[in-house]
């Protein structure tokens, strides 16, 4: 796909080009948004807000990097703003409770392995979840995370290590449970 | 698990993670993009209209004022017929001044020293010319003071008055002496004749001699009075000849959507175009037959707003302003369906109506409009007259609930704001009866307007151009004259 042409057409406010850009990136970006939120509805709200920002600020994109990475950054920032704005998330942002946080079961049709991992990440406390997403998946440094979330890089590091340890233990338990289930079936 | 390996595995898994968003997300995004565009357009439209109105009003006001000055004083701007380069020859007391400008040389009479006069004549070089007017023709003189009055924005009438008093006092003195001399000689000759005819006595001659100068001076005084009254007229004309008038504009009538420009043809023509659906498979029409669009009918429409009348001349004026327009047309549709359907241009609609004539539906369009109409008086009476008018107007569609026809699913009507043109240009024409009272001026008459821009941008829907016909009334309030 010729992204440059697509971006130019979007800048000319052509509805078909805008639709094409949205359709090309929507699924991946919803996956990004989904990891930061606790429900699919919230993820879709973030996606909507993010794409509106993309179309309104597309003239700021200067073909320097990949358009996908640029959109992804916007989605992550939109998701962070959403978490800060939303009381439900912001109150529990740094609540260090090491048990599963309930998520709304949306049952989307996704690839099973990725979904299982995503669901586990989403069961982390919101503070852990955000920092884990930013560092492990998006590749932000702890200094950058500190600047983004208004915390020290030390806090980011400690929360990330706790989130990582928690997630590894859940993955191990999940694998054991699955194996038991599989054996039971056999 | 190794530190980096865990992150790599997670990243790899997450790269493959995709979720399909619901259709509502794009609809909301498109709606928000549209809202922003709409807001931007409205802002531009208002700014453009405001600037156009302001410039138009300013231009006409100054055009009118300059025209008045030219007609009353004979001053014209450079480049005009009486430009500084033109030399107008007077009959007497004129001197050629460098720069091909002539002025009336009345050294001492106006109390202007030659030095002052030279300085003042340099003002003429800048673009103002003096058109000398002969007293005998009854026209007024334009002297240097007029020019300075214009330059310094002094009231012209006061300068005229001052100057005319000055001129007349000196002129009267010189004329009196001249006339006395002239009459004396005349008297002598008439006395000679009288003596010859033996009909006039010396006493009578004496009384005649006394009367003649008296009548001459009376004539001069009459001239002076006329001259001053002309000045007073100038004073009177300026406040009463109001150029700009604000008022209310209300119009009630009917509107419809026609197939062609300047045409009342609004019947749909069913034909081959409706036998196939370009938008995809026909759902609910087993034989491939598609219902053609139903004929539309006219509906009640109205306009209301603020009007501005700019008088250009005695007979013509420009009417402008800003108004809210409600235009509509009626169609008959079938039952409402709450099913998502893909129609032309991959547009998804969740609500649509079948194209069968069952229920009446009114397509409502809300516009904001800025008209620019030229009005020309065709009858003589100033207070009660008939005029013809025509002009153009720019309109912006604020919102609409209009249904658009599509051949999908055997012919349907659905809502799609994307195919409605926002900006419209209309041609309007009408006949008006003007009558004015002390407190107000009223303009009333039939009005027709035709849309020059296509309203529904769809090849499947024949309803394209708006037509409006109605009775238009404008009321302009006259300000009370200050005593």
Question: Care to describe what's here?
Answer:
The complex is a heterodimer of chains A (186) and B (483). By secondary structure, chain A is mostly helical. Chain A has helices spanning 3-11, 15-36, 40-56, 67-85, 87-90, 112-122, 126-137, 142-149, 153-185. The longest helix of chain A has 33 residues, at 153-185. Chain B folds into three domains: 94-154, no CATH class; 165-240, no CATH class; 243-477, Porin, CATH 2.40.160.20. Helix content of chain B is 34%, strand content 31%. In chain B, the strands form four sheets. An eight-stranded antiparallel β-barrel of chain B has the order 3-4-5-10-11-14-15-16. In chain B, a hairpin with a 6-residue loop joins strand 10 (359-377) and strand 11 (384-400). In chain B, helix 5 (156-197) packs antiparallel against helix 6. The termini of chain B are far apart. Chain A binds chain B through residues 13, 15-16, 18-19, 22-23, 26-28, 30-31, 34-35, 40, 43-44, 47-48, 51-52, 55-56, 108-111, 113-115, 117-118, 135-137, 139, 164, 168, and chain B through 1, 6-7, 10-11, 13-14, 16-22, 24-26, 28-30, 32-33, 36-37, 345-346, 418.
Q: Determine the CATH topology of the largest domain in chain B.
A: Porin
Order of helices and strands of chain A: HHHHHHHHH
The proportion of residues forming helix of chain B, as a percent range, comes to 25-40%
Supply the CATH class of the largest domain in chain A.
Mainly Alpha
The helicity of chain A comes to over 70%
**CATH fold description of the largest domain in chain A:** Arc Repressor Mutant, subunit A
Q: Tally of extended strands of chain B?
A: 16
